[in-house]
Specification:
The chain is an alpha/beta fold. It is built from ten helices and 17 strands. The structure holds nicotinamide-adenine-dinucleotide (NAD).
């Protein structure tokens, strides 16, 4: 096994999921590479050191530029807020580093295009952490669709509901609250949550041609956590949009952080000519499947418990019937990335794939302003 030295930037929520994935991946998957936790980078040296000790990083940096300059780092992993992705990724690519970057790729399509150009020129392996593709039940959905079991697709229906920003007293900006600050996040639920739904949708059902959207910012002003000033809120608190896929199917997408009672209700349903499938993040190891071609007397929705060895990724885990969870999607992502380095079949989604999602987000936000149908830019 070849060693692959990882330099992680950001030790928050995603810093932990990624570190866990790098540490565990070789315990469960036979791979040509072994990630080595070489360095953690964060601005607060003390906290970074504590993180390094907990997770086993060999060293600490407090400036990501210094991390990128280091000869002993092969892969830069970007787990920082959205407004930092482009600058870090571009510098890392120019330094010849492999890059794994958190989603959304960029603040908007224009910024994403620049990232894709630089990455292409540098020719470095790259991937974006749209991890839901690697929930075994979601990967099984992809297999069933690719096998043609659903037939012609008519409908795609996705939603991602949360309820954590309802209080008007919640500040915007700063640690953990950067998602409410448009300067750090780029957008609200569109780039944060719908981006996941869009990535999965494009993967399962192909490109989206046009959209029409509505957004709302329910709380118009919030105190900024860093400046203490009450400032206008620039993000979308809620977004719903209609879409037409290029394969002729119709879609509805909805996301909000104001759905009281819901924490992370990501669901999708796809209705085809012969069969339908449905999935729910709160029950992530199950795929609901209805096949019209079943014998009438026993026809009905099946709830497939995706835990058997012949189902995606599951042969690498426990015994049939025992389920896995959220953190495993990140382990699968690292496994596929490392596998792709040697077999010359790079894993997806790469930066270019993630740019397509960015284009859909741009069209959604534009349509919410113009109140018209907007075309989605095509990947070049
Ligand atoms: N794939 C997913 O399901 C998923 C889930 C959550 C977040 N994300 C994405 O991951 C990224 C990070 O989100 P999070 O939830 O981990 O945020 P977080 O607030 O928990 O952590 C962000 C980290 O970045 C650090 N940071 C910020 N600016 C920095 C800088 N200039 N240099 C070094 N470190 C810096 C912060 O100190 C913190 O450690 C975002 O782009 C977000 O959209 C993806």
């Amino acid at each position: 096994m070849k060693k692959l030295n990882v330099g992680l930037i950001g030790y928050g929520f995603m810093g932990r999921t990624h570190s866990n994935a790098f540490r565990k991946v070789n315990n469960f998957f036979d791979l040509p590479y072994q990630p080595v936790l070489k360095a953690i980078c964060a601005r607060d040296g003390g906290k970074a050191k504590a993180f390094a000790e907990r997770w086993g990083y060999e060293s600490v940096e407090t400036d990501w530029r210094r991390l990128i300059e280091r000869d002993d780092i092969d892969l830069i992993d970007i787990a920082t807020p959205n407004n930092t992705h482009a600058e870090i990724a571009i510098a890392a690519a120019k330094a010849g580093k492999m890059i794994m970057c958190e989603k959304p790729l960029s603040m908007d399509g224009k910024e994403g295009e620049k990232m894709v150009q630089v990455i292409k020129k540098a020719g470095v392996p790259n991937m974006v952490w749209y991890n839901y593709r690697r929930v075994p039940a979601v990967t099984l959905a992809k297999q069933l669709i690719d096998e043609g079991r659903l037939g012609r697709i008519f409908h795609y229906r996705a939603k991602f509901l949360q309820d954590w920003t309802i209080s008007k007293d919640l500040p915007q900006g700063g640690a953990a609250l950067w998602r409410l600050d448009v300067k750090a996040a780029g957008s609200g639920v569109t780039g944060d949550l719908l981006a996941h739904c869009i990535d999965t949708a494009i993967w399962l059902n192909g490109s989206i041609g046009s959209v029409t959207a509505m957004t709302e910012t329910f709380i118009k002003e919030r105190k900024h956590n860093l400046t203490g000033k009450v400032e206008k809120v620039g993000i979308d608190d809620a977004c719903a949009f209609l879409a037409r896929f290029n394969n002729g199917s119709l879609a509805t997408f909805e996301s909000t952080r104001y759905a009281r009672g819901h924490k992370a209700l990501y669901t999708f349903e796809i209705n085809g000519e012969n069969a339908s499938i449905a999935w729910d993040l709160h029950d992530l190891h199950r795929l609901q499947y209805f096949d019209y071609r079943d014998e009438g007397r026993v026809r009905g929705w099946r709830s497939i418990h995706v835990t058997d060895g012949d189902q995606p990724y599951m042969k690498n885990w426990w015994v049939p019937g025992l389920q896995i969870g959220y953190e495993h999607t990140f382990i699968h992502q690292v496994a596929d990335f490392l596998e792709g380095l040697d077999n010359k079949k790079p894993a997806h989604p790469d930066f270019r794939d993630a740019l397509e999602t960015q284009y859909v987000c741009d069209a959604v936000l534009k349509s919410a302003k113009t109140r018209k149908w907007e075309k989605v830019s095509k990947l070049k």
